[in-house]
Amino acid sequence: MTASDKQERLAARLLWLIPVMWSVNYLVARKAPGIVEPHMLALGRWGLAGGILAFLARKELWQARQAIVDVWHEYLALGVLGMLVCGAWVYLGAKTTGAMNIALIYAASPVLIAVGAVLFLGERLSRVQVLGVAMALVGVLTVITQGQLLAIAQVNWVAGDGWIVLAMVSWALYALLQKKWPTPFSATARLATICAGGVVAIFPFAVWEIYQPSTPPWSVDATALVLAAALIPGLGAYWLYGWTQRILGASRVAVTLYLSPLVATLLAWGVLHEPLGLHHATGLALVLPGVYLASRKAPTP
Length: 301
Fold this sequence. Notes:
The protein contains 15 helices and no strands. The chain is an all-alpha fold. The chain has one domain (17-295). The model has no long low-confidence stretch (mean pLDDT 82).
């Protein structure tokens, strides 16, 4: 067996760790209430991750410092969308909704990205993609309404689900703007600059939380949650995704995007002991194939 074969076999095995690593963030989000406040957790996560990324890309960032200053507003906007809304607001939503709901609602982000690409980037959807969009959105509504789609007026709405829906929309905008704003930077350098924008956006809210009487004192558990969020779903998952993609190709690694909500649901049931309801199973059965269909490349005319 050649070294290349061994590397490919290792990548094929480690591939299945990616959805597990991403799902850790949902577990952190549910463990955080009463230990660390949402914006403080997000600030610690992206401050640490951004610092490590900036160190790794320090030469590239220094050489391109003027180019970064010229488009600072882009990195600030991406930081607001990707780190403030998709970071702190997810932790805020987790105070009142479960990890299963977070994972299944968030799973529909690729659907909104596909729709946004049609509306703002001039792409088009095939009939199969339209079917996928409809399936995924019905699945998300099934989760949010707890399966009471036909009696939606009687649904007991949970505020946390609303925060996650906003985060899902924000993630779609984040992805679309990254396509719209091209960059000469490597993935490491670009993510480091976006983290910097996110830290700037999150910082005043984190300071405000520090001085609230309900804020718990900093603890070992708070530090552990920050480290877990920064190193596992942050740096670890991003790095492993990129490494396996280079070896196995984008199409084989893309399966992890579809497995993440399934893994997160199982972890929430097994680790957090959240009840798995029929509406979760129904939502999962609609969201997963819906996202797959909506994410398929439209045929060229």
